């Protein structure tokens, strides 16, 4: 059984937001078309408390895109974004969400960031998505959303590690591309056995 996993299509990740992914809003119509084809649709939502430790503003002398060592490893520091209850954390207003059956909120623990839909960045703390999918007998995920080289990539890699079949729909995602991170992300996903396909192909497989 298949499901569409829509990752972090939120205002702050779209043009005009606090952490815009170039052309991030262009995935919305593609995702809306895909949503209509799937019986199961799941979304993730970045949901940070104010003062989250992944924000550069929480560290004296640090700027966005700097890296620091955290308890769980290296952490990229970001502008304040997707703060709980703000308009930036809302889903893009043109995104169709009526068929979504579950929303996984992530990044709400103040001391740890969360890219993957499956685990926090310590790679140990689960979001509960694995259990939900298994309870529903969903074994294959089609992943879309933002950003290809961070939350989409980590969700795809973890989904594969958890034993699910994973497709990433290339024209339904965009990347930040920090220092070559986008090309590296596609390489990592390919090496992990993640299938990279078009939205037209996804529609036929849904």
SSE arrangement:
Layout: E1 2-7, H1 27-35, E2 41-46, E3 67-70, E4 73-76, E5 100-106, H2 129-135, E6 140-146, H3 151-161, E7 165-174, H4 181-191, E8 195-197, H5 199-205
Structure description:
The strands form two sheets. Strands 5-2-1-6-7-8 form a six-stranded parallel β-sheet. A two-stranded antiparallel ribbon has the order 3-4. The protein has helices at 27-35, 129-135, 151-161, 181-191, 199-205; strands spanning 2-7, 41-46, 67-70, 73-76, 100-106, 140-146, 165-174, 195-197. The protein has five helices and eight strands. It is of the alpha/beta class and 206 residues long. The mean pLDDT is 97. A hairpin with a 2-residue loop joins strand 3 and strand 4. It has one domain: Isochorismatase-like (Rossmann fold, 3-Layer(aba) Sandwich). GO terms for molecular function: metal ion binding; nicotinamidase activity. Residues 3-200 form the Isochorismatase-like domain. InterPro entries: Isochorismatase-like_dom, Isochorismatase-like_sf, Isochorismatase_Nicotinamidase. It holds the Pfam family Isochorismatase. Keywords: Hydrolase, Metal-binding, Pyridine nucleotide biosynthesis.
Briefly summarize what is shown.
The chain has 206 residues and is an alpha/beta fold. The protein contains five helices and eight strands, in the order βαββββαβαβαβα. The strands form two sheets. Strands 5-2-1-6-7-8 form a six-stranded parallel sheet. A two-stranded antiparallel sheet has the order 3-4.
């Amino acid at each position: 059984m298949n499901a569409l996993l829509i990752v972090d299509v939120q205002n702050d990740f779209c043009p005009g937001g606090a952490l815009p992914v170039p052309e991030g809003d262009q995935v919305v119509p593609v995702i809306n078309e895909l949503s209509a084809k799937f019986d199961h649709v799941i979304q993730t939502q970045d949901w940070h408390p104010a003062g989250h430790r992944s924000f550069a503003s929480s560290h004296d002398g640090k700027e966005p895109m700097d890296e620091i060592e955290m308890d769980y490893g290296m952490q990229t520091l970001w502008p304040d974004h997707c703060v709980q209850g703000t308009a930036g954390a809302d889903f893009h207003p043109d995104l169709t969400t009526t068929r979504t059956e579950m929303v996984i909120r992530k990044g709400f623990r103040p001391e740890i960031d969360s890219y993957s839909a499956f685990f926090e960045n310590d790679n140990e703390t689960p979001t509960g998505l694995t259990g939900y999918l298994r309870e529903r007998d969903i074994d294959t995920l089609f992943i879309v959303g933002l950003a290809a080289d961070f939350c989409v990539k980590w969700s795809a890699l973890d989904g594969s590690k958890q034993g699910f079949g994973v497709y990433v729909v290339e024209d339904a995602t965009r990347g930040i591309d920090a220092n070559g991170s986008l090309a590296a992300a596609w390489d990592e996903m390919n090496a992990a056995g993640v299938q990279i396909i078009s939205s037209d192909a996804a529609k036929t497989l849904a």
